Amino acid sequence: MSTPISRPTVTTNALWWCALGLLLALPSLAFAPVPLALPPEFWPELPARLVLRPDQGGHQPMWSWWATAWLHGSEAHLWRNLFGAGLILLMGTLSDVTPRDTLAWFIAWPLTHLGMLLEPSLTSYVGLSGVLHAGVVIVALANLHHPVRASHRVVGTVLLAWVAGKLFMENPWAHHLVLSEASAINVAPWAHLSGALAGALTWSAVHLGRPGRPKP
Fold this sequence. Notes:
By secondary structure, this protein is mainly alpha-helical. It has helices at residues 12-25, 45-50, 64-67, 75-94, 99-114, 129-145, 151-170, 189-206; strands at residues 178-180, 185-187. The chain has a two-stranded antiparallel ribbon with strand order 1-2. Strand 1 (178-180) and strand 2 (185-187) form a beta hairpin.
């Protein structure tokens, strides 16, 4: 008599996480790369309406806090971010993130872009990378706070160390824009810092006073 093989199941928690990740990533495929070397006034009409413009402070269309993540400066920029989004969805699924973790990522989405107002020298900011950094931090904190397995605490520690090291190397306080040969554009390191802080703040807010899972 053969023993049935158990297959891993995708939990409802993971489905919510993946749904948010797909909402964040997939609309990007509808937009051609924007010409970052030009002011938004010279862009196609729809991207020009959706983009976040840090140089204009808080005078932004409401939708820009979310929609600017769907715009990219090159094909390489787009596909690298989509690959990163896929990794974060996989990590969150394997970590069995909770609905509160997903809520934290959703709130961090516009909060990341709000932080870009501290870079008023930029006439535009586009891309997923800031919100993806928020997602990495949230997955890391979830692994530390409510791990499914004991090894997940190690994963959480490694992820936080990676983010901290990356931010230190990028030095967003000193560099407004840095050339990324891989993405073929100038990237804004401040977005990565803003996203990481947004993820930490929103995760802490939604889990305030909430105990973690029992130790595995």
